[in-house]
Amino acid sequence: MVTTGRLEAFSDAVIAVAITLLILDIKVPDASSATGLWHALGDRWPNYASYAVSFLVIGIIWANHHSLIDVVERVNRPLALLNVLLLMAIVLIPFSTALMARYLPGGGARSHIAAAVYSFTFLLMSLGFSAIWLHASRGRRLLIAGFTDAELREITRGFTLGLPLYAVAIGIAFVSAPACLVLHAIVAIYYALAARGGSIRPPTAASG
Amino acid sequence: MVTTGRLEAFSDAVIAVAITLLILDIKVPDASSATGLWHALGDRWPNYASYAVSFLVIGIIWANHHSLIDVVERVNRPLALLNVLLLMAIVLIPFSTALMARYLPGGGARSHIAAAVYSFTFLLMSLGFSAIWLHASRGRRLLIAGFTDAELREITRGFTLGLPLYAVAIGIAFVSAPACLVLHAIVAIYYALAARGGSIRPPTAASG
Amino acid sequence: MVTTGRLEAFSDAVIAVAITLLILDIKVPDASSATGLWHALGDRWPNYASYAVSFLVIGIIWANHHSLIDVVERVNRPLALLNVLLLMAIVLIPFSTALMARYLPGGGARSHIAAAVYSFTFLLMSLGFSAIWLHASRGRRLLIAGFTDAELREITRGFTLGLPLYAVAIGIAFVSAPACLVLHAIVAIYYALAARGGSIRPPTAASG
Amino acid sequence: MVTTGRLEAFSDAVIAVAITLLILDIKVPDASSATGLWHALGDRWPNYASYAVSFLVIGIIWANHHSLIDVVERVNRPLALLNVLLLMAIVLIPFSTALMARYLPGGGARSHIAAAVYSFTFLLMSLGFSAIWLHASRGRRLLIAGFTDAELREITRGFTLGLPLYAVAIGIAFVSAPACLVLHAIVAIYYALAARGGSIRPPTAASG
User: Do the interacting molecules here have an ipTM over 0.85?
Assistant: First the structure.
């Protein structure tokens, strides 16, 4: 059987490769003069911005994935499958980041589509997380012991919060792609620093 | 010597990189209008479908590899070599997936070839699994103790089942590439969820 | 929560992928004759030199990252975020290495820009290290017990030393790109071999 | 400090990424007819052959690296540096494999150069291994206890054997590139299966 330790190790490796592949979309520019090179490097700002936001988001996904699996006691086959689906969504992010970087600077309708697709891959990722949590926590079947009902409800709220959030981001994408990217950056930094953002505290009973 | 733990860790890393490289074949389209971008993204459906199926298949390979190595007590040199050959087959999958995605939409004879090559890499992978199992289980030489003869026969049946299955898929490839891809998807989901599909339960005697 | 062990494992994986991606910039040349092939392979010296220096630098980053996390007792959210930012800087290195290799041979102003950007990614990396150390060591909040004040001051000096060093490298970049690359090579070898270069000894009190 | 466990984990990850990157050189062919696709896939035989040989060689490098580090008790700074240099040589192999695959079919002087460069990267790798072993075993300074002088001499012979072997391969490269590739395949399979090929048995005294 797949243990939680192995599920984490494999997920870590996939997430580590996905986060590193983000750099492959930042290409060396061709420039025939020094001024041209400065401009070409500067013109790549949508790549740098998308790279930074996606790197941050995937980094937080990694941390939250550990929080989630930490409270899972055992892995059954549907959970392993849901985890593969989550990874499938995460690995899409280098593609949607490249799409965002390609169409962000032009503005207009194409940038809206790119930002919507970008947000949509985050929504898929959030769906994966929610599905894993709901499957594991339903009747507490795969969780470690000690969670109170209130704790479970709070964690469920934390995990499913991403869904409306990313749905809103898709909406904003059709208004302004840069605003959409900024929103993702703010959400990522909030999640990274907020004491309880999307993370799971071990049950108080277990640690008591 | 290579221990089972290290064999698993290295195989995990190779499988994790291979599964993530699948995304490199989904390229950002060039489009000069919003409508063009929607169409270009939609036209990539063979890439998305192949990506999803291959991701699922490799994810299941990963889980089954653990099931297999879990019941192996020690690694000898031929087993390590067979494992390298198995990984060699798995790492071919990103290539055959790209081939499938490239020729699936056109239909016709080229799509049949692509689907056949795609199925052939799965057959190679299945051959690798069967070879590892047969080498390890022959006279129980590398297995943990406790398997009954009936259990061994059942596992052998489970592992070698992939061979005729993928041979059939190669046949179907020459009739219809989409049907072949759908078959792989169904087999993958079945294996992912079926209680005993391709996986190995530890011997009852050992856990009793 | 993210433990130090998991932070290290994830960082290791990201660094391992980043260091290996360096090879993707060394491309097979097209040549129509044997002499042409020798020359084309020889003309790639900026790629080989940049590859070697960056590989060495990232290898040392990896070792120093372990030295750093070894004396960290627990990971809090800001530390995990700072670590993601450090990785973000490290993963930029394959890009800046490719930029360096592309514009080094031409000489002139473009090579100065490339060398400056190359050094700048190292400066970012050094900033990340300093930030992690300063956050962890401030009031000893995240460190293992046993460091004396003198030891802490010495380590702080070691880590923040990279900042002026890489600032100087940026300056030298605008004089001579090859000299800048040679400087990075010397610094890397010094750090690799020097008993105390950038590394952290565990507190004497703890090991006493 | 870097421990042997971490040195192995990092080396494993780098080797796993390098071995998987080999597939990136096998590209999907463009073909306008079914016959054209069969031919294009068949014409890729130098890619398949080089892929298989390099995959096997790197797989064996991985196993031998564990054998080597298993008898190392502690890592000092020069050893960590030598290990980075070894990895630097291993990561070159995807490049030299692509070079081999590109110029093998044409035959003639260019194929000789490609095969010589290919063999040269293996020689570099072998040099790295020898350097690590000689540094670690000199005066037994970094080894686990229990090796007899005769055992040390035997292992030294096993490790340094690669050097003349790969030098001979470089010579053969200038006669025939296919013969050179076949030689590498034979050596790899021999090393993979031979009871003592390049591997290290733990000291008899320690296990007695």
Answer: yes
